[in-house]
Amino acid sequence: MSDAAWNPGIVTALGSMPGTDPVEAARIVLGELPDLMPLPELPARGVGADMLGRTAGLLVDLAVEVVPSGYRVAGKPGRDHRRALDLMRWDLDAVEQAVAEAGPPRAVKVQAAGPWTLAAGIELERGHRVLTDPGALRDFAESLTEGLRAHAAQVAQRTGAPVVVQLDEPSLPAVLAGSLPTPSGYGQVAAVPEPEAQSLLGEVIEALAAATGAPVLVHCCANRPPVRLLRGAGAGAIALDATRLGSVSGALADELGEAWEEGTRLVLGLVPGVDPEGRPDVRELARPGLELASRLGFAPKALLERGAVSPACGLAGASPEWARRALSVAKEITEVFAEAAER
């Protein structure tokens, strides 16, 4: 990310929040995360508010509709497309209102499904996934890029803050492994070779980084995220669920160590995304981050200088009380890192 969006000890969130009130969500995230405020996503509102529907609403000259199996390419924009546009418009109005009340954040983060997750989650007219058709895949990647450039520019204009783009790629490991089911459910979609996956993602990242002036963050919450591929594609920051990585060793340790050494930021998800049982021990929540730095051969100060803290996943499934508390706990974890760095 640009220096304007990255301070030592920065805290952010992945995007989703509970509830259906965009004004309240915007006030909370701006108040708690003024350095890198995520544009709140409220999937509880239903169609068009979830990750795929929200992203599809940003596409240029492409439209989708809801069918029993999920989202499908549509011949022209319809009710579902208009709903996604309306929801996004209300979200932008809410953020603008929050900024008018409290002042602008240092930077705003906008989130959208990455090209591979989008192409894996949307069907063509005959039910096959977009990623199985090279021409459709290319069209969707280009449309996504154009739509996100316009979206980022609009958010920057409304907030007066620089914008960082986050691409969510939860389906990328399945795309690479060839584990996505075909429409019949009896077969699997052929695996996409890593060079091809990296090339397409890299084109999207390069264009968005050039448009915003800030490196792009890619989020993948898999147990074994494809760190080398993401870094090779040009991701300036990689968001991981640090609670799922386990004992990092071997190739993953090498990939994470190389990424950190060469300047890629690691956004470590350390705070539960749903309400925990009892009051969490902040030092215990910080432990996976401290252990990761140690395994990779870095001093604790690297967690402040080259990393960030976030909830482990989106907060849509949390209670409103925990969602707000989780953001505070993330800030407390950075204080534990700072104490460790001073020893």
Helix content: 40-55%
How many β strands by DSSP?
10
- Order of strands in the sheet with most strands: 1-4-6-7-8-9-10
The end-to-end distance, rounded to whole angstroms, is: 28 Å
Shape: globular
Q: From N to C, what is the helix and strand string?
A: HEHEEHEHEHEHHEHEHEHHEH
Query: Which segments are poorly predicted (pLDDT under 50) over 5 or more consecutive residues?
Result: none
Give the radius of gyration. 19 Å
Sheet with most strands: 7 strands, parallel
Q: How large a portion of the residues is in β-strands, by DSSP E?
A: 5-15%
**Counting H and I runs of at least 4 residues, what is the number of helices?**
12
Mean pLDDT: 94
Please identify the structural class as seen in this structure.
alpha/beta
Characterization of this structure:
It is a single chain. The protein has helices at 22-32, 51-56, 79-102, 115-121, 134-159, 172-177, 194-212, 227-232, 250-261, 282-296, 301-305, 320-342; strands spanning 37-38, 63-67, 70-74, 108-113, 122-123, 163-168, 217-219, 237-241, 265-271, 307-311. The protein has 343 residues and is of the alpha/beta class. Helix 1 (22-32) packs across helix 3. The longest helix is centred in the middle third of the chain and has 26 residues, at 134-159. The model has no long low-confidence stretch (mean pLDDT 94).
